[in-house]
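Quick question about two entries, pasted in order.
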Amino acid sequence: MATPLRLAALLLVLVAAFASAARADLVVSRADRKVDLTSHIVRVLTSLKVENAGSEPVSKVLLAFPNIQAKNLAAIRAFGTEGKVKGLSSVLPIEVVEPSGVPPELTFFSASLHKPLQKGKILHLDVLTVFTHFLQPFPEEITQADSQLVVFQDSSHYLSPYPVKVQTLSIRLPGGRVESYTKYGNTKLVDSELKYGPYEDVPPFSYNPIIVHFENNNPFAVAKELIREIEISHWGNVQITEHYNIVHGGARLKGEFSRLDYQSRPYARGVSSFRHLIARLPARAHSIYYRDEIGNISTSHLWSDSKKVLLLFISFVMAKFPNKSATHVC
């Protein structure tokens, strides 16, 4: 895990290096970021109000991420609408770009507008990003009786190639205790929400490191390997078999596992383990079967939700700590 000092040093260098590369044609009037840390997958919704302060139309908006974050970026989507008042947004094409004259420590994406943004016009841009393997267990090893603590590292400032007039950051935590968090003058922790800002007149590529150390006992199920086999018969039937190699991606188990303690006090002696998996299947799926290599499945349930999607609920005899298992679902 990168230390806070390493992150701060790296990004202070980036701020100086990118100062001359900032794009002066666009100005972010307001940036509001909402970070969801309630599971092991980090979801960030960034709402931007962008104004063309230059003299020429602009057809693309650049989005910047440090490489240490971009390597864990699983998905990114952008939605935009033009006008002083935010209306119905449309999906914008987005791609990785390499602007000229910039160091390699940042990864850039470009959101292409459906029509160029004219001088003085305003664009409302929402960017949804999803990160995996972003939260780091700390400590990396815990006993069966311990709660799982993780570390989240980011910036209280939105990393933007454009100047930002006003910005805020809101971090939603899963509940439980918060060991520590970076405090600045306008930092507030209310219940399970940590707020930074507002910040005004922030220059391009500004980075203000923050670290949040908190309890997160949500399932850290990770499919280390997935193999899909699709068989199409002459009669039109389609059989799909999925082979999962599932591991616990959280803190490693230190010491021995006591099945007796777990069964007698499961929420005190195994709070950070996960006890079941949920598979979302097409509504027309039938003849469903499953098995695992270590015989650890106890019960299952199959039902439809409000969207007519079949949900397969698989329970385990023994909780999943950081050890390997495999579950096959068809």
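Here is the second entry:
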Amino acid sequence: MGGSWRSRGSELTKKYGMEGEVTEIQASQQDGMNIPKTYGISVLGLHGAGQEIRSGVFDENQVRAAAGITMLMGAIALVCAYSAKEYLPIQTVTTFFFMEFVIRVRFGLQYSPLGHVVRLITHLPPQWVSAKPKRFAWTLGLVLSFAMMVITNADIRGPLPLTICLVCLSLMWLESVLGLCLGCEIHAWLVRRGWMSKDEAFEICASGACNIDGHPSGDNRSSDSVR
């Protein structure tokens, strides 16, 4: 049994670019078994702020790459709609984005279409960040993409879809180019204001967005954190 887990863990190491041990949760994902309750990828031996990170994580490099691809797709669709008056691309893209975010929010980036793409094109060492903040941010993306899908497929034109589209592109640009997850920042702000309770799964975030109490979130680089 132990050898079987180690073998499947080795396969996941190649698949996700991990180093070190892999949990049984990941092995069950690789085998196509039931989706585990833990959201994100579980990595043994990952540390931040002097303690072990127990919640699920995602590779920030892959998250930013996915944001860049969605930004490019959205920009092309927007140009087609408002320059060439071709609305089929933006109708198709917004529907795809909605389905993409549904999968990300429900199951995680590793199960979405773009998640599979970015795993093939990103070759940098993993930079692990907590999965829950990304889920919060992608929930906002899900709401915006749903609104755009309904608006564009209902043939609504004018400033409303243009404004929403520009907001979406701006958020994608902030994450892909600057590494700023605005959804993560919003969640941290809501927690500091006392409007949301602190989630213990928010442990390490890009740009320190998880630092609710002002404490450093620690190093999340794979080479130092994963045994």
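Reply: The longest helix spans residues 60-82. DSSP finds nine helices and four strands in the chain. Hope that helps.
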